[in-house]
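Continuing from the previous page of notes. For each protein in this section, the sequence appears first, followed by its structure tokens. Read the first protein now.
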Amino acid sequence: MKLLNSLNLRGWLLVGTAVCGVALAGAVATFGSSARAGSALEERKLPMKFSWIACEPNCRGWVSAVGIITADTPKDFEEFSRGRQLGGATVVLDSSGGSVNDAITLGRRFRNLGLLTTVGISLQNRGGQSARPAVAPEAYCESMCVFLLLAGKKRYVPDAAHVRVHQIWMGDRADDAKAASYSAQDLMIVERDIGRLAKYTFDMGGAGDLLSLALSVPPWEDLHELDAGELKLTNLVTTDLVADVLPHVDVTAPAMAELAPKTQARFGAEPEPAKSTKTAEAVVPTGSVAAPATAAQK
């Protein structure tokens, strides 16, 4: 516990007013069917997938990003974007978080493309083939997803969405963080990654208040949900108008069954040169106890 307390203090001193975006969209939804609820939950536990939601001629369309951020996610996005004109498009996030360093890599790619970001669940084929696609706003953006949200040139969070923050942690010891032991090497990794997160967050236009909020919540407690005031204070939201990110798109949807898994972002080992990092993915817990990671640490 002395090391954990030191971690919080030294991490804060290291970055000053830096932001540790710890939040993303865990948009889990169903239309009353328990089978579909299970399917939605399983999708969020899988590695992130990207798909293009077309709605021409009414709107340009948008990118749906669903799942956890893994070491393969930046490469998967590059493959998805090949041959597509994505500049200035909107990304609708539905994720429980994932790898710290790979979220940073992906977020920088988003910003380079001038992408816009929001939180939601992309819906297609509502009421038949002729129905326009829509976005269900009652979604969850937890853990490292916030870095992707923060990467948007413009950022909108619906009133019904839930953005939650938490400390990031050593991936192989988050299941029982209090009982685990930590070395000086572990502390070095934590401080190194907080420094990376701080620089990234400043580059994206984030505020230091987000780091303060996140570092106050240890991994054995429930995630902290940011209210409307905190979303503005942390600069996660840059517009109150959905039309700024999703013009001509229906963002109202039928009432949806709510699933709100508790997850946290985690620190991992030193990234290998010219390769993705070894940070662990976020997990989908059962109840109040974190479940094993959904993918093996790379």
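Done with the first. The second protein uses the same format. Note its length before scrolling.
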Amino acid sequence: MTPFAQDHLPTFKENKKNTGRLMIKCPDQPGIVAAVSSFLQEFEANIIELSQYSMDPNGGTFFTRIEFECPELEKKAKRMTEAFETIADQFSMEWTYTNVSDLKKIAIFVSKEPHCLLELLWEWQSGDLLADIALVISNHEDAREIVESLHIPFYYLPANRDIRKEVEAKQLKLLEEYEVDLIVLARYMQILTPEFVSAHPNRIINIHHSFLPAFIGARPYERAYDRGVKLIGATSHYVTNDLDEGPIIEQDTDRVDHRDHADDMKKIGRSIERRVLARAVRWHLEDRIIVHHNKTVVF
């Protein structure tokens, strides 16, 4: 861990020790916000941020993210979550509770291109990515020096189609050993098996180097150049077993024109990929994303 992270992360944990978050999805109906607010008041909790959205007030789905301050939260958290089950049952809620001071542990997977990895490491060093980067796994050695210079464990696991399951078994063992909460594919150029994906539902974030659903699969910049597009983009999404079709978290674009060849588009695209992936990862860490079927609600 870098000196900055050593100083910043403990301070964050101390400052947020009494901060909690509730993420809720349920059928829309009257009284949801009132019930949750009254519940929090009973525990002397003060709501400091509340975001909500209804797909349709008449029979649609309701989503909300609530962040609150509660004195002596650590002592109350278990009792609060147990008591909240009554409200959850009443409104048929799918819900999660998070102690904000409990930093999520990240595993970053990378291949040869380091730009997305470097962006995440910079955000982490600067204190904008509040997480514990537990380890980096790569099928190439290229990123070892920069990763280990930051005192982050680096694991080189060569991978290809013929040994994919054997390699994934080693990866899964590492993820369990480090108690990883989130896997980030920072331009990791290997397709994951259905078994690997199903073991981490909505906990694998990928960056795809095109503005999905355009140019799914390999070589999107070359195909974009051949098509003569005027916009290129990048998409960050949760990984499912349908290639590049998981719930989209974030997208962005930049303009190109007839002067930009495929290599020019790749250079422009790397900048888009970096910022799109960083935003998606940050929003996941801050519990701002609720997945609904193959879409996301991002608060």
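What the second structure shows: The mean pLDDT is 94. The longest helix spans residues 262-285. We return to this in next week's lecture.
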